[in-house]
Amino acid sequence: MSHSPKTIATEWLSKFTESASTGDVQSTVSAFLPHGFLRDLLIFSWNNHTLEGHEKISAYLSNSLAPAQITDVRLDEQPGLEPEFFPVTSLITGVAAAFTFESCLFHGRGYFRLCPGESPGEWKALTVFTMADGLKGHEEVGRETGIYGAHTLSWEEVNAKRRANIESDPQVIIIGAGQTGLQIAARFGQMKIPTIVVEANPRVGDNWRKRYPTLVLHTPRAHVNMLYQPFPRNWPTFTPRDKLANWLEQYAESQDIVVWNKSRILPVPRYDDKALRWDVIVDRNGTLIELHPAHIVVAAGTLGAPRTPDVDGYHEFLGEAFHASRFMGAQPFAGKRVIVVGAGNTAADICQDLSFRGAATITMVVRKSTCVVSAKVLNAMLDEAFPEGVPTEISDFKRASIPWPLVRATLIEQREERLAHDKDLHDGLRKAGLKLNEGADGSGQLILVYEKFGEYHTNQVRRGTQTLHEQYSHLLRRLRACGRCSHFCHWI
Q1: DSSP string computed for 161-207
Q2: Is this prediction's pTM over 0.90?
Q3: What is the overall mean pLDDT for the chain?
Q4: Which one, 36, 37, 55, 274, has least CB within 10 Å?
């Protein structure tokens, strides 16, 4: 190509800026391909939207573009976001670039992907992503000097006073001190928004410590770094359960987050429409404390309480039966016959542990087909999206800029390539009795993560043999009288 990606991006952004800053919807929409996408996070409405095609984009912006007051649009060339060429197809090359801007309420940022238009030298947007990056009036404060009161106050005194002020009148209460709740609290801390995190467990990180002992994160560290505080350079590629638990505890301490452990919000908080505050009672380790925050953030996790299905014969089973959330290692099951219900990540990890620790037999019982992807295939995808050496927030931003319909279409297009890579794995699983799928539309495991948070697992298991059954009610009836199986683990 005769022009650099920066030149192409700058020219397109200049025209887009002129249209957007003047509130000209028609001209703004004309900067998109006819089938282009606008993905917007809070800039043009108080919700997240993905629009495809001129008609839908125009309707969305018709009453929101001018009020947003887009100004000061600039190309963003920070490391990791420099304008670059990218392959659209084997024959078409596009240009991708980032930008920053101001709106009436937010400091914003965006990302766009351009493709050649119909006319020579013309470029149109395949995707444009806009998002709120900071709330005006609550800018992040950044690092402190560490010297307080002209070097007359100790950090212990400063921290104790800050905590007391936050605990007396928090603006926000966050329910849950997992990775999400802690990072939200860290961000609010930088924005000087007084925040308390309420956590039911005795220690930060217990939500991971209480899981099965061989648990390791299935995605590499570049995908799961924490805000402001990435893992050390020598951190393992895949983070073990206890290291993650301890890291979360250290994170809460180093980010000066106020966490109330052994605490719960009592039902039911009430909102005062006149005061614009919540009336909340917190049980803090047996002491009831009344608070009046402006906001409550629920960060209690994606999964609810353990659920054990009501299966005919379950309570008559002669062996021990329990949910996988109670599985604390396979050592007690050496020499015993065990059934594991389910074929997700937890079930697969438990089966591996049982095999390694010498269970006599292991039977995996599965209700329906499962999407299985090898760690090699999944990590190749993640390594491309979250490369080592690039800050996670940069990779997150670029990944979030891709509209979901394009993600799905790309994964469907890559289906045969994925299946070819995992052919030996899939052949072995089918031979063992496991029915496999690639999702309802062939898009594979990633879509299932976001849409169902289940019906898949990432294979990190060493080679071995285990029996699989497709249904389990008949199996229970057969086992409950003869006691052939001594233990029965559930993962639903």
Answers
A1: HHHHHHHHS-SEEEE--SHHHHHHHHHHHHTT--EEEE-SSSSTTHH
A2: no
A3: 89
A4: 274
